[in-house]
Amino acid sequence: MNSSDNSKKVVFSHSYFMRFDPKQWEIGQPYPPLGTLYAAALLREHGFDVSLQDAMFAHGPADIIPALDKRPDIFVIYDDGFNYLTKMCLTNMREAAFEMCRLAKQRGSIVVVSGSDSTDHCEEYLGHGADFIILGEAEITLLELAKALDNGSTDFSSIEGLAIKGESGIVKTPKRNVLKDLDSLPMPAWDLIEVENYRDAWLKHAGYFSLNMATTRGCPYKCNWCAKPIYGNRYNSRSPQNVVSELKYLKEKFQFDHIWFCDDIFGLKPGWVEEFGRLVKEQGLEFRFKIQCRADLLQKESFIEGLARAGCDNVWIGAESGSQKILDAMDKGITISEIHQAVHLLKQYDIKPSLFIQFGYPGETKEDIALTLKMINEVMPHEIGISVSYPLPGTVFYERVKNELQQKSNWTDSDELAVMFRNTYSPEFYKRLHRYVHAYFHRIKTQNTLKANRRNQLGAVEASLASLLKLPYYRLNEGLLKLKLKAVQ
After folding, report:
1. Which residues pair with 353 in a beta bridge?
2. Percent helix, strand, coil in the chain (nearest 5)?
3. How far is CA 430 from CA 366, 427, 444, 488, in A?
4. H/E element holding 445?
5. How remote is the C-alpha of 472 from its chain's centroid?
6. Are 294 and 334 in contact (CB under 8 A)?
7. Radius of gyration of the chain from its Cα atoms, rounded to whole angstroms
8. What is the 3-state secondary structure (H, E, C) of 222-260?
């Protein structure tokens, strides 16, 4: 059906307020709420009058009031399940979501919430004004719920994937299976966002404009600390043709420079990357992109060659640790040698290898930390992203440490990096370790740059001078941070 004056009005928002996450606000590289745009597009395709109040640049929940004062029939807080920041379930964002629920209920809207945090804490959200919590992958559940509300139904027991307040407590309907045919979804409602806000932030902070896309949902691997409350362990993929069609639309409409393919794992389906690369060239699309992938999947030269041909610029690998003991404890399913081989092959094809590093997993010792530093030094990644082990509901790791989470179970923002369970070392040690490892990395990266420039003197004088000027600072900073680290061991 087509949208009309009689269509139910649905206002979408999400609970990620970048201003409430100081580290990300300073970095200034935001991505639109992709999951939210998918859901809005599906409801609009079925005749609902949808709009979006994007919280990304908002000052706070009160910014939603003008939209709520128009008395929408349904207010949906639909968090972006593709964004790792929303998977963290940060308490700043949870409190903002509670306030939006309250404001919407004051104005008579039916309140629906979907996201990792609300799936894990549905009782709290229902207690703060939400009428419905969607559990897991949400588009189809939301569509069925919106249609039922449109028809005046009061019985929602046949709609899979809901949590509702009942007379004797929380009632959960049967679990909904994840969507297998991802091509059946409409293109995300890109027209609902103010793209210029995102473009301006990227150009100011990075010098280029990046947008986000998802080609898959889910991850079949079993890392025991990784939470998957939305898309689960099933791995489903869009067709290369469907992805390239959206890329062509985005390039023509927004002229992006770069794409972040925000899949948990990119290109797992055999032959997918090769066909994707062929179609990209066929359509004359030119852009750079970054992905996330596993070290064990980056062992075939033909796969990496296909990534390079398609325009891949940077691959983030979940290395986590340089200690095989810790990788095995995590059920990571990779080896240290595979990390080395993956980085080596990526560099051969001029793709930047970057590593996610995780400290603080139970049982980690100073020897394990030293092995991680050794690995970083040996493989010399382009970038590193450092975190500490963070227990989220639904994981084996969470069950192992949940009895130790009485005082705190979520970070306030993404830079808190607090270890919230008993560990080998104190929480302060890991905060200082985070800063020290970054300083260590910058120092060895600068030294390697100098060595490379000496080998290739032509055109490298300016780069060498810049590195020489930075090196004393990096050495001093690393030394000071090492002393501070030793003080809390």
Report:
1. 315
2. 45, 15, 40
3. 11, 5, 21, 9
4. helix 427-455
5. 35
6. yes
7. 23
8. CCCCCCCCCCCCCCEECCHHHHHHHHHHHHHHHCCCEEE
Per-residue pLDDT of the chain (489 residues; tens, 9 = 90+): 344 456 799 999 999 999 999 999 999 999 999 999 999 999 999 999 999 999 999 999 999 999 999 999 999 999 999 998 988 889 999 999 999 999 999 999 999 999 999 999 999 999 999 999 999 999 999 999 999 999 999 999 999 999 999 888 999 999 999 999 999 999 999 999 999 999 999 999 999 999 999 999 999 999 999 989 899 888 999 999 999 999 999 999 999 999 999 999 999 999 999 999 999 999 999 999 999 999 999 999 999 999 999 999 999 999 999 999 999 999 999 999 999 999 999 999 999 999 999 999 999 999 999 999 999 999 999 999 999 999 989 899 999 999 988 678 899 999 998 899 988 899 999 999 999 999 999 999 999 888 877 766 555 555 556 667 788 888 888 899 889 998 987
Q: Which amino acid is at 173?
A: T
DSSP letter at 428 equals: H
Give the Cα-Cα-Cα angle 337, 290, 294 (nearest 5 degrees). Answer: 30
> Pick from 143, 177, 171, 147: which is nearest to 157 by CA?
171
Report the residue count for the chain.
489
Q: Is the pTM of this model over 0.90?
A: yes
Give the Cα separation of 80 and 87 in Å (integer).
9
CA atoms within 13 A on the CB side of 146: 30
Measured between alpha carbons, how far is 471 from 464 in angstroms, rounded to an integer?
10
Q: What does 121-147 look like in DSSP terms, one character per residue?
A: THHHHHHTT-SEEE-SS-HHHHHHHHH
CA distances from 415 to 153, 280, 412, 431 (A): 44, 37, 8, 10
